[in-house]
Amino acid sequence: MSLTIYFLDPADLPAIQKVRAEIFTPETAPASILIQTPGLVAPDLLVELAPIAVIPFDRFREPDVGV
Questions:
Q1: Containing structural domain, residue 55
Q2: What's the domain of life for this entry (predicted)?
């Protein structure tokens, strides 16, 4: 798993790091990238996450598309 975090204000970094540490232990923490940006997809957002995860092959199921 990897996690890209886009954020607006560098003053928010301590809060971002605190929440990340509450959710992930050092053993389970994904590779992460923090990117400061001038804007996000919605003007009222302060932080945007772009996670990437891998589903183990034995847990993969074809989606039911109702055909």
A1: 2-59
A2: Bacteria
